[in-house]
Amino acid sequence: MTLKTAETDITYTIEQINASEEGMKDFLFTLGCFPGQDITIISKVSSNYVINIKDARYSIDGELAEAISIRTQEEMKKIV
User: Fold this and answer.
1) For the domain that residue 67 is a member of, what is the CATH number?
2) Side-chain-side CA neighbours of residue 4 (13 Å)
3) Per the structure, how many domains does the chain have?
């Protein structure tokens, strides 16, 4: 599942970043988006997503949200 299809107010764990452009991947890493990090969608408005990572809030667009593969924390527990 990607962040674009996720629900608000649920904490997910980032599984991987599938960015089509290297610059996009670098930008997400500067926000703290990397595998294993927790992420929550605070709100979705049109194609804008307000996300919470490491107690900081950021606004990203739908293209960036599509690049972030996530799993629920319950799914991650089953993997470990």
Assistant:
1) 2.30.30.90
2) 12
3) 1
Residues constituting the chain: 80
Q: Grade residue 80 by pLDDT with cuts at 50, 70 and 90.
A: low
First to last CA, the chain: 18
Query: Which pair of structure tokens corresponds to residue 43?
Result: 């709100």
Q: Which residue range is the domain that position 15 belongs to?
A: 3-79
38: Cβ–Cβ under 8 A, 6 or more apart, which residues? 11, 12, 13, 14, 53, 73
d(CA 14, CA 58) in angstroms, rounded, equals 15
Closest CA to 3 of 71, 78, 79, 80: 71
pLDDT in tens, 21-71: 889 999 999 999 999 999 999 999 988 999 999 999 999 999 999 999 999
